[in-house]
Design goal:
This protein has 411 residues and is α/β, with parallel strands linked by helices. It is built from 18 helices and ten strands. The chain has one domain: Metal-dependent hydrolases (TIM Barrel), CATH 3.20.20.140. The strands form three sheets. A five-stranded parallel β-sheet has the order 4-5-6-9-10. Bound molecules: D-fructuronic acid and zinc ion (ZN). The site of D-fructuronic acid has 8 residues, from loops.
Length: 411
């Protein structure tokens, strides 16, 4: 194959291969208003709120007093009209509109709103999954949130295209609050983490893994995350999460490196990033070989050592270009490095979509970059005389876009 033929074939296969998006903040329509979609939600995504509040003459508190439409109007004027929408999060909004067949050149925000108003959530879910070719949307589900919990207690997610994840931040990061909620839910727990409490926490994990049919357990951890450690978090991980994870053969996902609320006024947009300690990941993978760990780290500085760690432990599956890394320059850098170090045994991307429409742009942008890297890598292969077949390209790309995840779950 010539480079041009290889490029066309790789791009075609990337487009045609259905994706499993292993980490999102999306919901099925069963969850009502928790499922965010449409232009006003796209424009008020916390990435764009941060970019707006950097340049607009308005205090965050005043911004939050605006209603959703007013917030979206301000973001649109500030980032799209008064300035060119050149950031990745701005461009993403326009990619969504373009892929939906709307006239981006018109800059007609009202017209865009009328389009979305003409759709039902069910219609739009079908449209977005078709346009993005995302076959499975893996959610982030929080039983500590009363609004979400009540939906699960009435039957939960009923759309098989969406799968659940048991998210544990209130228990593992803000432990006192998590323990008090478990007590309210009828679990016999107390702050001191007695043997009885640890047993009851395991019962809670099993109850909710069952209720949700969750694919894995997950937590977001600060740069200071250490393991082993003499603290509540380590005790709960060691005596509750890891045993249940092992017994049920479900991975434990650690998303490491978030500095929460460095600017609290920005609320969701107020989190930042810090370099984390790879030794905690290495210790867990080495000392709990029967456990499986999905890991993504938020600092660019952690990416090389995480990829090297993945070479050492088959029970470590690294995934995604998370949050502040989900930008073309860093996605390309990370995907090249990971392919060179790990071949095809990793998961290059997840969307982290909070707004349904974002599946369209986050995957369109990532496919383009992953394709660029793969063309170079298979071209390098070709120069040795190795001729990769179309079937092999399909096999390899299927692995990267989700197959590795499902096989890791089965491992
Ligand atoms: O902890 C997480 O799942 C993070 O992805 C979110 O808290 C974060 O706000 C986000 O959506 C980043 O893309
Ligand atoms: Zn997330």
């Amino acid at each position: 194959m010539t480079r041009e033929e290889l490029t066309a074939k790789i791009e075609e296969i990337l487009e045609q291969t259905p994706i499993t998006d292993i980490h999102t903040h999306l919901y099925t329509n069963d969850f009502g208003g928790l499922l965010l979609w449409g232009i006003d939600e796209l424009l008020t995504y916390h990435y764009l709120v941060a970019e707006t509040l950097r340049v607009v003459d308005l205090e965050p508190a005043a911004f939050w007093k605006l209603d959703k439409t007013q917030q979206a109007d301000l973001v649109w004027k500030t980032l799209f009209v008064d300035r060119s929408p050149i950031s990745e999060a701005c461009r993403g909004v326009l990619t969504c509109l373009a892929k939906l067949g709307l006239d981006v050149e018109s800059r007609d925000l009202q017209g865009y709103r009328e389009y979305f108003a003409s759709l039902t959530p069910e219609q739009y879910i079908d449209k977005v999954l078709e346009l993005s070719n995302v076959e499975t949307v893996v959610m982030t589900n929080d039983p500590f949130d009363p609004a979400e919990r009540s939906i699960w207690e009435q039957g939960g997610a009923t759309d098989p295209r969406f799968r659940a994840v048991l998210r544990l931040d209130p228990l593992l990061v803000t432990t006192p609050q998590g323990i008090s909620i478990l007590r309210e839910l009828g679990y016999n727990v107390e702050a001191g983490l007695s043997k009885e409490t640890l047993s009851e926490v395991r019962r809670f994990l099993n109850d909710w893994l069952d209720k949700m049919g969750a694919l894995y357990m997950a937590v977001s951890l600060p740069p200071s995350f250490a393991f082993p450690a003499n603290n509540l978090q380590a005790r709960l991980i060691e005596h509750c999460v890891l045993p249940v994870s092992r017994e049920r053969n479900v991975p434990f996902a650690m998303m490491i490196g978030v500095k929460k609320l460095v600017n609290p006024e920005l609320i969701l947009a107020g989190d930042s990033v810090g370099k984390s300690c790879i030794e905690a990941v290495e210790y867990l993978c080495a000392n709990y070989p029967e456990n499986k760990f999905l890991v993504t780290m938020l600092a660019r500085e952690n990416q090389h050592e995480l990829a090297v760690a993945a070479r050492k432990y088959k029970n470590l599956m690294l995934f995604g270009c998370w949050w502040f890394l989900n930008n073309p320059s860093l996605i390309e850098e990370m995907t090249r490095m990971r392919t060179e170090l790990l071949g095809l045994s990793y998961l290059p991307q997840h969307s982290d979509a909070r707004v349904l429409d974002q599946l369209i742009y986050k995957w369109a942008h990532s496919r383009e970059i992953i394709g660029k890297v793969l063309v170079d890598k298979y071209s390098d292969l070709g120069r040795t005389g190795w001729k990769v077949t179309e079937a092999e390209l399909k096999r390899d790309i299927e692995a990267l876009l989700g197959g590795n995840f499902w096989r890791f779950l089965e491992m």
